[in-house]
Structures are given as structure tokens and as C-alpha cells.
Amino acid sequence: MKKEDIKKTLSYQKLRKNAYIFSAFFSFIFLLFITVILTAKGETTPIVFSIILIGMFGGFTIYQFLVLRKILQYAESFEKCDGRIVSITSTTNRGYAKMIVEFKDFMEEDYRMESHNVFTINEIGDHMGHEVVIYFSKEYPTVLIDQFKTEKTAIDDDLYQEKNIW
User: Fold this and answer.
1) Which of 153, 156, 162, 5 is nearest to 74 (CA)?
2) If we measure between CA atoms, which residue out of 81, 99, 68, 84 comes closest to residue 135?
3) H helix or E strand, kind and range, residue 84
4) Is residue 90 helix, strand or coil?
5) pLDDT tens for residues 77-122?
6) Which of 101, 83, 69 lies closest to 3 in space, CA to CA?
7) Other CB atoms closer than 10 Å to residue 46's CB: what's the count?
8) Global pTM?
9) Contacts 24+ apart (CB under 8 A), 44-50
């Protein structure tokens, strides 16, 4: 796959959005703690505490961008497949979870891999058991969700048309 195709996937876009949010948050924290360091007047406790927190937030922000870079490094090895969301794992207190996706590659081998932790439980619940288009690589341990397939039934179509008559 091309890097441009990978950049268009839902997973990559959400990871990139998270990286930008974390970098903005880190910038704010950095400026705040630099102010604390400059106004500490020689006291070592606030300076040490500020440096430790800057390091922690900075490391986490850098990690987000390294994940994006790693995905693009393996872009050539990704294959496009159809899969099905079968369960969730690793929920967090923020309401995000990893999805477990079952799929077959082009050689009809069965796989079961998890996605990144960027989708909310509500999003996953709406698409549980449905088909998804994914990108996977044998070299990269996580699948990228390209898009969710929505299947409309005849009943849904009739209800939609009935609502739009008026």
C-alpha cells in the first residue's frame, strides 16, 4: 500500500488527531512549568517536580508521533482485507477500547488481531459483528481500520423513505 492510503484510514487519522492534541497539551504544560521554574527563586522542589513532569508529558507526546512514524515505515507491507469485529479488549477509563478483528488474508489464512486504542466503546458497539475494511501487515502487530461497512436492510430503507416523505 501507499503511504497516502494509510494516511486516509480512520485509525491513522484518529492517532494523528490524538498526537496533535497531546502536543498542544504538552506545549501548554511546558509553558506552565517553565513559568514555575523561572519564578521558583532557587527552590529546588518545584524545579525538580516541573522537570520530571515535563519529561513525562514530553515522552508521551513523542511516543504518539513515533507510532505514526512506525506505521508509515511499514506502509509498503500492509494489505487491504475485509474483516469482522468480534470483541473488545483493554478498555480505559476514558471510554476507549481496542477491537478484536477476525479476517482472512489473500491466501485465506485466518487471523485475529487487535486495533489501536482510539475508538470509543459506543462507536465499537454500533459496529460490533459488522464488516470492516482493514489494513494489516505481518510485520506490524496491529490492524488499521479503514472504514466501517454499514449494511442497510430493506426495513431501514423503508423507514428512511417514510421519514423523508414529509
Assistant:
1) 5
2) 81
3) strand 79-89
4) coil
5) 999 999 998 888 866 667 788 889 999 888 888 989 999 988 888 7
6) 69
7) 14
8) 0.79
9) none
DSSP string, 16-58: HHHHHHHHHHHHHHHHHHHHHHHTSTT-HHHHHHHHHHHHHHH
Determine which helix (DSSP H) or strand (DSSP E) holds 80, and give its type and residue range.
strand 79-89
Asked whether 143 and 136 are in contact (CB, 8 A), the reply is yes
Residue 42 grid cell: 532557587
Q: What is the 3-state secondary structure (H, E, C) of 93-151?
A: CCCEEEEEEEEECCCCCEEEEEECCCEEHHHHHHHCCCEEEEEECCCCCCEEEEEECCC
- C-alpha to C-alpha distance for 3 and 78, rounded to whole angstroms: 10
- Amino acid type, 146: D
